[in-house]
TrEMBL record:
PANTHER family: DAMAGE-CONTROL PHOSPHATASE ARMT1. It comes from the Bacteria. Its cofactor is Mn(2+). Belongs to the damage-control phosphatase family. Sugar phosphate phosphatase III subfamily. Residues 30-386 form the Damage-control phosphatase ARMT1-like metal-binding domain. This is Damage-control phosphatase ARMT1 family protein. It holds the Pfam family ARMT1-like_dom. The keyword Ligase does not apply. It comes from Limnofasciculus baicalensis BBK-W-15. Keywords: Hydrolase, Manganese, Metal-binding. One of its GO terms (molecular function) is phosphatase activity.
Amino acid sequence: MKFLSNEPRLPVPSPLMMWEEGSFANVTLIDRWPTIIRRVIEENDFSPLIIENLDNIVREFPNGIVRSLKGDHGADLEAWAGYIEPWLGQRWIDVPWLFAEVYLYRRILEATGYFTPGNFQGIDPFASQKSSSLVKVIPSIQAMSTQVNRFVNSQENRVSAIALLYFALWGNRIDLSMWPEDAEEGDRSRIESDSQQANILVDDTAKIADKIAGFRGVRIDFIIDNAGFELFCDLCLADFLIDSGVAERVYFHLKPHPFFVSDAMIKDVDLTLSVLMNNSNSDVSSLGNRLTEHINQNRLICRDDFFWTSPLPFWEMPEDLRGELGQSELIFVKGDANYRRLLGDCQWSFTTPFEDIVCYFPAPMVSLRTLKAEIIAGLQENQVEDLNRRDPQWLINGEWGVIQFSD
Ligand SMILES: O=P(O)(O)OC[C@H]1O[C@](O)(CO)[C@@H](O)[C@@H]1O
């Protein structure tokens, strides 16, 4: 029997909070957010007033109070009045982590005048980090473009699809809110084939490849996460789906404004394509040209929507967006923050069946996510015990991934 509902099938547990000392959410509030804001100040040429606005946000952590947004001309102000209402007047440390984090990124834009007519309107405070991270991964992009062009000319569609799914997963290891592009972390775009499979905790790739094998000229969607190497990997998968005839159209759902440092907007797709097209390596430029052709022919379509930058769980998706996504045969949900929203950022037991939570999703979906928050579903009990023994940081270090399919 098909279960039809707009909500998870199980009672929803309470959300992840930030007050628990030692939790990743607490470290995020106390250490990571101030670092992110200081970096925005260093990397931009903002006015003294804007710098003061940004400094003031840092001073609010952790005991400052959640307040309404100022009338900064954002098209999302009315929606935000509703999101903030339940938490108004409460301390940052006492409100749910997901709400606080999304509110923080909106407050940064209020502080920098992103929506306000004036000198800094439309300036992406994270632009320089995004573009230097893209430059840094050019060698990986060159190596991968050669491979992708081979996939496109090969008859082995199943093998190609599986390889590209792994790339699209591990591309999510790079995330500038966690690992700034100049961090001494080694090259996170390096994808080693042995760790590709060994570190995947749930791997539904075979089921997805079977599903894709049955498609001809369908619609496929991506709820996109980071710009840079991850977006490049997503573009490679989209290119393959279109070229192989699997998809007639691929839709990319992007953020309407800067978010979580490295999240991709439509302008980041445009920038990536122009970097690819202008690269001196012919494998890279031909891939860039092909992707641009897909855009020109309306086969690769980029959309944005304020729902993607809201603090709501995905089961509160507005009806029009739900109807739109419902036309898709398969939706790739990319990255950690989107995974948190899929699960409502709640404290599910790690062994809760994934399907029992995400059954509300409007179309078959695949989550491709490396773990960067203390939330997950769909594991086996012995897996959790084993991971706790082997790698105490397994939930947050980005070294482990899931490819979880819900039909
Ligand atoms: O780019 P991603 O994969 O969505 O990750 C965003 C990161 O920011 C966080 O929200 C923490 O600040 C994590 O959940 C996640 O690691």
